[in-house]
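Re: beginner question about structure tokens

> Can someone show what the tokenized structure looks like for a real chain? I only ever see the sequence side.

Sure, here's an example I had lying around. Input first:
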Amino acid sequence: MLKTATALTEIAMLIYWALAIALTLELVSIDPALMYSDYENPLVIAWNWSFFPIDIAFALIGLSARFARVSGALKFKLEIIAAVLMLCAGLMAISFWIVTADFEPMWWGMNIWLVLLGTLNLVRAKPN
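And the corresponding structure tokens:
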């Protein structure tokens, strides 16, 4: 179940960034109620895009660990890297919102999920 939840989360992250790109290119419109706080502020936009590399990395590395044909030792290393990046991405977002005293349950929930899922994956990872 953990592997399925993790793979679905990684796929959802790739979809999130595909939508962010489509929104930036004005190919789609998203209801402002679904956006994060102050989403039109250039500094907040830059803050959000600063997560792009870490989010894409954990998603692609994690999916590679699960679905690519890699040796047991490499698979274990990829799982650890993906879990650490996932945990860090969630923790960085939550830390920012704590510092800015901004509480939006939907965005906090998604990022707490990343912290918990990343932590669970680290705890349960076993070398092959």
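Each token stands for a local structural state, so reading them left to right follows the chain. The mean pLDDT is 91.
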